[in-house]
Design brief:
It contains seven helices and two strands; from the N terminus they run ααββααααα. It is globular, with a radius of gyration of 17 Å. A hairpin with a 4-residue loop joins β1 and β2. The chain has a two-stranded antiparallel ribbon. Helices cover 46% and strands 10% of the residues. The chain has a domain of 51 residues. The chain is mainly alpha-helical. The longest helix has 17 residues.
Length: 124
């Protein structure tokens, strides 16, 4: 069986290595400084990119780094109980790296409030 690595091009691999180099150079107090996020956005084009440390008990954002102009407006706490990954984490105490597609089908996701309010590409 062929793995997904078989389809990577030399340019893809250079992009990954550049991201790792940029991330290492930007390493510091925060796990994902803006420079690292910008390097990731060059590798994986996106509308918005960000990283936040959250306090789920007090339901507040502790730290945010990114380019989302709406970050920090507390809207996340309005939908957190509906978010498939958050529900999964709370139900199973599983905070390992988990993809959204591991916990919800694309069809269910696209028809959810989470998709409409948070994940739908901008301009759609």
């Amino acid at each position: 069986m062929r793995g997904s690595w078989d389809s990577l091009t030399a340019a893809d691999l250079r992009g990954v290595l550049t991201l790792i180099e940029d991330a290492w150079a930007a390493a510091g107090e925060h796990p994902f400084p803006l420079g690292t996020l910008q390097a990731l956005a060059c590798l994986i084009p996106c509308d918005v990119i960000g990283y936040a440390d959250m306090d789920p008990v007090a339901r507040r954002e502790l730290n945010y780094v990114g380019n989302d102009p709406d970050a920090g407006d507390d809207r996340f706490w309005e939908i957190v109980d509906e978010h498939p990954l958050c529900r999964h984490q709370l139900a199973y105490a599983d905070f390992s790296a988990t993809r959204l597609s591991d916990v919800i089908s694309r069809r269910r996701l696209v028809n959810s409030r989470i998709y409409a309010d948070w994940l739908r590409p901008r301009g759609d």
